[in-house]
Amino acid sequence: MRLRHTGVAALAASTLVLAACGGDDDGDTGGSAGSGTINFYTDKGAWEPQFLQVSDVSEGSIGLGLDFTGYSDAEQYSAFIRQSFRTDEKPDLFTWHTGSELEDLVAEDLLAPTTDIWQTAIDDGDVPEALREHFTVDGEQYCVPMNAAYWVMYYNKAVFDQYGLTEPTSWAELMTIADTLKANGVTPFYETNILFSFVWFQTLLAGTDPDLYNALSSGEASYTDEGVVAVMEQWRDMLEAGYFGDPGDQTAPQDQLKSGTVAMINFGTFLSGQLNSVDMVSGTDYDFFVIPNVNPDLPQTSLIFETGPMCTAKDAANEESALEYAQWWMTEEAQTAWSNARGDVSFNPKAQVNDEQLAALNEQAGADDHLLLERYFEATPTPVLTAALDGFSAFVTNPGDPMPILETIQAEADAYWSSQG
Amino acid sequence: MSGLAVAAPERTTTPGPVRRRGSYRWSARGFGLPALLVVAVLLYLPFLWTTWISFTEYNGLGSPSWVGLDNYRAMFDDPNFLTSLRNTLIWVVGSITVPVGLGLLIATLSYGMRFGSWLRLPFLIPYAISGVAVGVVWRFVLQNGGGLSQALDALGLPGADSRWLSDAPLNTIVMIGAAAWQQSGVNALLFVIGLQSIPREPIEAARLDGASGWRMFRHMHWPMLRPLTTVVVGLSLVASLKTFDIVWVMTKGGPGRNAETLAVTMYEETFVNSAYGAGSAVAVFLSVVTFLAAITYLRRQLSPERTV
Amino acid sequence: MTPMAARILRPTVLVVLGLIWLAPIYLLLVNASKDPARYAADQVWRPVSDFALFDNMRQAWEIGGLGDAVTSTLLYSVIAPALAVLIGAALGFGIVALRLKHGFFWFVLVFGGTVFPLQMILMPLFVGYVEAGIYDSRLGMVAIYTAVTVPFAALVMRNFLGGIAHQVFEAAVMDGATTWRIFWRIYLPMSTSALVAVFILQATFVWNDLLLGLALSQSDEVRPLMTAAAALQDTYGGLQLTAVLAGGLLVSLPTVVLFLSTQRIFSRGLNLGQF
What we know:
Chain A: This is Extracellular solute-binding protein. Chain A is an alpha/beta fold.
């Protein structure tokens, strides 16, 4: 637990003396965490209360707590974690991204392996085997999953009730719902041109051709392939038909759903926590459904998931207790505390999720009729992703010929994959 | 020499009666040293590192590998760099005209008026408000269908359905407006201070001759404010070349990079793409341009022969 | 234009402009005072029906842990600008009174510190700070805030001191005063207004800094206020907009009050037109 020095001292004459002593002056916090505290860094600064809540549980359970440092700027966060490996301030425990970002760290041998921890967790049934590959580089596991989220369609129940709509079971039904809403002057879907501009590309492609979706992220397919172009054209038609809200509207998605600006939001399950925070009640004011496949002939329903790793630096000051903490983090106790604090699903099927809708999704996702696909954001190498986000953001703002955008992304992809040898 | 002869008395140019200037060589160095030291160690030294990185390829991990001028060549070949250069130029032109012009307007209108300092208060508040609050409020105002659109709609004015932050170059222009909102008050304050130091006698004489309003400003105030204006313009120039915060907070440089400035490009390459070399090259380019711009105006204003 | 018309026109233009300037402030106040449950994005201009400003502020204060950061931030925004104006004044004194050789060159060198985009020196600073053992320390924060505020202080102080007649210096020398004593007892007291004006401008800057605080500190005791305030909102949620606004407003209060209440000092201290 972090120690707060609230009543520090009077300013006045002692200011310079005070200035000379920093965070290291209180023994067991700051840079020199003792055995009971682990320095924990994350770019999800807004989640501090939830992390500290779980930290309270862990202190009682394994005698270890988190000394929390949150960043609010994901880009700077990434830069500082990268730089910190050159210094003595290596992070004990920090959140990161799977995919190329993880591979970067492993390539420089900066992470403590977690292969044993994973084996134990899988044997205990704390984590589905399928998750392992996303944490595997060259046969070894690194980091543990910090969280998990599925990308589903949230909807405003009051709006659905008003027009007598029910959750769709096919893409055709979903489109009928959208048409009904549109006919009544309600915007069906949320869209944004900042950061999450990739979401509908991901949904349409994964629901049309999941193999192509995977091939695209591994560099085996091209953005200019026929299938990708077709998806972009479908997206453009939907954009032009007025299915989407204003991509330039920076009102938070939870506020847009609440006010009924849009009726549905294609989003990660962490939106539940945000909806709860604006006093919407799960199952009463909002609910969600798994988005049906665009292509009805696919054997499994494509379900996008994301997972954020929690990693330990090799040779961090508290490497051992950090790994112990990582191990504990995967347990039922930790995951029950975490998912309920956040109001989100858990990767641990044994975690008792209070929110009924989320708990149901947790079970559904584990069943055979769903195909889990890694979120585009993590599945795509960073330089390609940056080009794609820029391209999609321009595309949703001014829908038009997708070819120039796809060619730009593909040029970036060509450069990336050729440099990977 | 400025027109402010009264406020800045003529300095004697003949050597003082006591000691020659050379005799203070060591204590002069002593007085200058702290400033040089702190700036050299904490600003120049880190920037040297950035300059070195600009000649390498580096992803923030492991060690940088030397690539010579490759980053600079790639930079000038990148169409996005040219967009961002264009936007930066719009920012420079916008920032040295709008906030400076408004500042001058507010200062001359309110100067000498009863309750003038009270009427200036609204313009000063924005400067002191934290960036976090300013960012949120302006997103409110400028997003599509946001505060500005709602206001235009309510007043029956056209433009309510403009996509303020989506379309270039409209997004750059409205963001310059937001920046002017923050900066104009400080500029007005600087101009008021300038006006206060104008000697009263010639103004009174002109007034007795029947000069007022525009004529008074054109022939009496403006000539005396010109040196100050150049400094304010110079400071705005340096600041506008480095425009980052407002663009990043409101649009992240988009959509599709159409609102990027050089500083945003630099940031995106470095922090988003982890292409430290490419980002550093933009930073070096930006610093050189800023330095040249600053030195040009400094040379004109702080004429060296007076102090060397 | 007749004087009469001018007498009406001038305040009218000012008031209209002023109202436009206050409109975003109005939005800030009104929406920061709204009960989160009643906030609606398409009705941002609508006044509050129930006043929840203090509840929102309390929420931001508690959840953001802003209380922890107040002491350190106050410390930074007092000490760093104070040091900067002194250091800047010393350079100005060296150049203007003691006729430092190549004074203009040294001045340009110091002022040149402002041309570097701060974002790019963050990482080398971070690594350097860790290696020097001043990462996450108040000493380190004061040092960097001093460094970034020195160039502007040097610009203003050099100009201001240039306005003091050199005879003052010569007379003091005749009286047998040392240079240090002349600086400390004569030049500094003569430039109080400039010192204070620069101090206030730079204290406002330090108080509002987000970038450096984020980069060079980590613990609650060292991290400045804005770093904590910025964490109130991010992509992955955070507080509601009303509370973010209330928090943003709350952390701005000290600088707004300081800035507005000291307007008069500026008039005497900040004449950049004197060369």
